[in-house]
What does this fold into?
Amino acid sequence: MSASLSPETISIIKSTAPVMRQHGVAITTRMYERLFVDPEMRRLFDEAAQKSGEQPKRLAAALLAFASNADNLDVLKDSVERIAARHAAMSVKPEHYPAVANALLPAIKDVLGDAVEERIMNAWGEAYWFLAEILKSREDSIYKRGE
Ligand code: HEM
It folds into this structure.
């Protein structure tokens, strides 16, 4: 993971780790409500083998791990590999990423309130796309290798 976020974004993201710890699952639960308004998204997740209701917790844990380690992303390597492998197994495509961003970012405001500062929303927008690029590139090489 060679690319990096700006020092300012890293410090904002790290400062939100306690909020993510407390409200992460509420945010991701709300995110899925927003995402599943789109039948294509609903279908993609319905086809996933695990329907344990654990998904919002897993996504919240991934976001928290990211927030806590925004300045030391190498520790996230194994979890990035696991997520990319799972995504590839479910045929997640680059064009799916905007829909998740458009569900996740408003979900943060839904849960934390409109008072969330603009700089915090911007930092999470930047962080989402940073992580998305890492995942997309891993998924791309998995698809190219035909795994
Ligand atoms: C930065 C963006 C994203 C992050 C951080 C993320 C994170 C995760 C995590 C942590 C898991 C669970 C992996 C495991 O089983 O251990 C997962 C699974 C999954 N993700 Fe993502 N994801 C992202 C984007 C997307 C997008 C754009 C899609 C497509 C709409 C997607 C669809 C799925 C599906 C279908 C699963 C499998 C669900 C299941 O096992 O029930 N994800 N993702």
